[in-house]
Amino acid sequence: MFLGEYQHTVDSKGRLVLPSKFRARLERGLVVTKGQERCLYVFPIDRWEEEVEKVNRLPRTDRRSRNYARSFFGAASDQMLDGQGRVQVPQSLRDYAGFSKDVVVVGVADRVEIWNAESWAINSSEADEFYAAIEEALSGEGI
């Protein structure tokens, strides 16, 4: 399971050191792709296979499903961590997420998200406000 928030930097070659506590779960391989809100998702290879199955179940006759699949798979990059725990983030994904040098790596249970630091600050603040006001979800009323 991936938990926590970590400040990191992307080097000039587009490599990012992932938190050491995440590496064991990613050592068999990982996939980096576009996430929602212009972040990147990092899936361990076994979780990626589950995501592939989910997306493949979407109706191909639906334009939204086709476009989602094109973005999700077309941008995906399968990777292995290098000896220093780094992952190579392709330029197209760095552009999509608006990466500068500073990024935030966030553990979100079954996946890792990588955010432009400024975007994370805004999104995190909004998410915290939503989270603080959602007591009705805990009472069974739903989100």
**Total helical elements:** 6
Apparent shape: globular
Report the CATH superfamily.
Transcriptional regulator MraZ domain
Overall number of strands? 8
| CATH architecture label | 3-Layer(aba) Sandwich
Mean pLDDT reading: 94
Strand order of the largest sheet: 1-7-8-4-3-5
Class by SSE composition? alpha+beta
Q: What is the H-and-E element order?
A: EEHEEHHEEHEEHH
Low-confidence stretches: none
Radius of gyration: 16 Å
The fraction of residues in strands falls at: 25-35%
What's the helical proportion of residues? 40-55%
* Name of the top-level CATH class: Alpha Beta
Q: Compute the number of structural domains.
A: 1
Instruction: Assign the CATH topology.
Output: Chemotaxis protein chec
Question: What is the end-to-end distance?
Answer: 23 Å
Can you summarize the main beta sheet?
6 strands, antiparallel
Describe the structure.
This protein has 143 residues and is an alpha+beta fold. The protein has a single domain (2-116), classed as Transcriptional regulator MraZ domain (Chemotaxis protein chec, 3-Layer(aba) Sandwich). 41% of the residues lie in helices and 29% in strands. It is built from 6 helices and 8 strands. The strands form 2 sheets. A 6-stranded antiparallel sheet has the order 1-7-8-4-3-5, with helices on both faces. Strand 7 (102-109) and strand 8 form a beta hairpin. It is globular, with a radius of gyration of 16 Å. The relative contact order is 0.23. The mean pLDDT is 94.
